[in-house]
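Support reply, case 0932

Customer input (verbatim):
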Amino acid sequence: MKTTVAEYLVTRGLPADWRYASPFGRIAAETYRSVYRREPRKAFRLINGRFRRVMAYRASERHVLDTAYEIYPRTATPDAVPTPRHTVARISGAMRWTPSSAPLTRHP
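Our regenerated output:
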């Protein structure tokens, strides 16, 4: 059975019409070409009411899609976000105006 990029993305929890599916597919095709030294197979799929030729991969070639998933920046493991440093407020309470219930006599 052949698997397309859209079908693969659905198995990874992303929508089939994910906006980065086409660039991801290009990365997968490049990976396939570098491994197998030939073009990936193609299949017809109904997309937006028209049959279009898309790249298709066999189950034995799924490792190509896994590799592309790890390489592609939008799906690669994100870098760890540094925790913010604990900072002390540098502005003292005298610099901040807090409204009171008294009538306003002048602008702070």
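We compared this against your earlier run and they match. Two observations from our side: The helical segments are 5-11, 21-36, 62-71. DSSP finds three helices and three strands in the chain. Please reopen the case if you see a mismatch on your end.
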